[in-house]
Design brief:
Length: about 260
């Protein structure tokens, strides 16, 4: 009996000691500043370019899901946007953004590279563009800032134009409302690797056309594109301007991707 009482006393002492330790220990401060950051998204608009995974320095920013447990060899195909058009978080600072071959042959070979400075709180788009050179295994690329209006306006949509066709002259994007037939110029003439400002348009369905300065005929067209109020959209021109086929993969095309 005495032995049991001694053991009980020792256990109670240990519990009291532990309780005292937790009561008297200073609380640990786990608070800290919210990490700073920026956003970037990736387009594979390099004509004839292979599927790629996009990287920022040594960090993979996009990937294709696989059911085998092994990394997919598909990558982001030509005409597609990484992460289904969503942005990836990135730390502010200077980064080397790259598109690297996803296939087994020439695996992880960088075919497009841009070194740029990413600023805190801003959003950017990386475009793999131009024509893929099968000899040098390189493609052109550029980065633009996605400079949204500072204030949301839920009464209209905002649209901007990015020119990613390397063999096309400067173009202006026009949007014609299919209900009112009113045509609106989306910014000014934009050169290759350029991005226009976000322009407010009424919500609705639009036929889109690009035209060279002083030319009445359309260079690239797309019909029945919907713009919702309160949303921001980027219309990007990609492809080979010399292709006249309406079904060829590398035909001139106007891509519509929502920014937010």
């Amino acid at each position: 009996m005495n032995r049991h009482r001694s053991i009980a006393a020792l256990l109670c002492g240990a519990v009291l000691s532990s309780c005292e330790m937790f009561e008297t220990a200073a609380p640990r401060d786990i608070a800290g500043p919210v990490p700073a950051g920026a956003l970037v998204r990736f387009f594979n608009f390099g004509v004839n370019a292979p599927g790629v995974n996009f990287y920022a320095d040594t960090t993979k920013m996009t990937a294709i899901s696989s059911t085998t447990g092994a990394e997919s060899t598909t990558g982001v195909a030509y005409g597609a946007v990484g992460a289904s058009g969503l942005y990836s978080a990135i730390e502010p600072g200077q980064h080397t953004l790259m598109g690297k071959i996803a296939a087994t042959t020439d695996k992880d070979l960088a075919i497009s590279t841009v070194t740029t400075t990413i600023e805190d709180g801003k959003a950017y788009s990386f475009y793999q563009s131009g024509f893929y050179n099968t000899t040098t295994k390189t493609s052109d690329a550029f980065v633009v800032e996605d400079a949204y209006p500072e204030q949301y306006d839920f009464s209209v949509a905002h649209v901007r134009f990015v020119h990613a066709i390397s063999n096309a002259n400067p173009m202006t994007l026009y949007a014609t409302n299919t209900t009112t037939t009113t045509e609106t110029g989306i910014g000014a003439a934009t050169s290759y690797k350029g991005a226009g400002a976000f322009t407010a348009v009424a919500a609705g369905v639009y036929d889109l056309n690009t035209r060279y300065t002083g030319v009445g005929t359309n260079a690239v067209s797309r019909t029945a594109v919907s713009f919702l109020a309160g949303k921001h959209y980027t219309i990007s021109a990609r492809g080979d301007i010399t292709v006249v086929s309406t079904t060829a993969t590398n035909r001139p095309f106007l891509d519509n991707t929502a920014n937010r």
